Amino acid sequence: MADTPDYAQVQPSRRSKRSRRVALSAAIASGVAVAAIVTVTTNVLSKPETSSSGSGTASVSSARASAPEPIEKLWPAAVHEVPAKLPDGRQVRPRLMVDTTKVLLTAEASFEKANGLYTYDVNNGEVTKLADISLPADTILFPDGFTTGQGRVAWWTARGTDDKRTADIWTVPTTGGRPQLVASAPLPPASSAGFVTGIAITPDRLAWSAGNEGVFTVDINGGQPQRVEGTQGQHILSWPWVGSPGTVGGNEAPFQSVMNVETGEKRAQTALQSGSPVACGITLCVTHPDRSMVAQVQGRDGRARYEMDVTGVAPQPLQLDRFLSAQLPDRALVHDVQTGASAEIRGIDPRTRYRARAGSNIALFARGDKFVVVDLTAIH
Questions:
Q1: Which of 24, 50, 71, 154 keeps 20 to 30 A from 137, CA to CA?
Q2: 166: helix, coil or strand?
């Protein structure tokens, strides 16, 4: 399942079983379950010094900041431990923050086969059921792409055969209830970013991007989907921003070019200084010059912010236009490229990795019999 607003879990033995179960093409494996394993060895400039140049770019100093701090010290309000099982023993998976205190969980009948929605209250540990998720007999792609907004949770599933597949887009109130099928549409072949590559909820419409076919919207209460003009090959980054390429597990940085579908404004990475982008958001990109371990955080206007020391950074989107996450053998890192702060999480399970998505508002790691959920919206 490509492009989830939470995280795509990578456990090879389970993934191979799942691939056989759904009997889809290798595109699923490449666009769905490939982790962008980011190994960031870092410390950034504490107070960068920039100066304008005639080309519109800027030079940067080479001062370095202090080492990453424990996340419990740096961002104590943002880090939460969530049990990996419900009280009845079923496995769960954190998907996103529904609000400031509740984590959305999916209960799984089997690996990645979600059949129930719950919330976990980080203040008192209370688990509340929101909804059952029905899975028709011809389901071939299971609930994924979870996002939230306007008092609703949305996700997608797919049914049919390899020759004829239909995507179903669902919503349910964040207070709970019966899921509503908002739209059904032909599921195009997967792009390198996957099948349904992003979902967004606006005040009156539901939007999603699919394959390389572009962005579609439908009335929030249901109706006939409509393609958004000029979005062929585009994927949802953060509404109303879309871009290309989408989130992938390969060597190409996602969202090097972005466009506002409401205003028509376009922002490309052509203004950036020389080097290959490794991470991009709406306003910022991180570029990695050739044959150098020093990456630059830059605005899309080409103005350099500061430098980062990096080792083996894998391409990824900037979550909320500011966060990079990394998982090393002995620890995880969450880096705020807007402020230069970075936090480390010790004791994580190196066997389980999660791929950050543009639409996600959490960073997720496994630690023992719990998850570590970092609420990125709580970092100010």
A1: 154
A2: strand
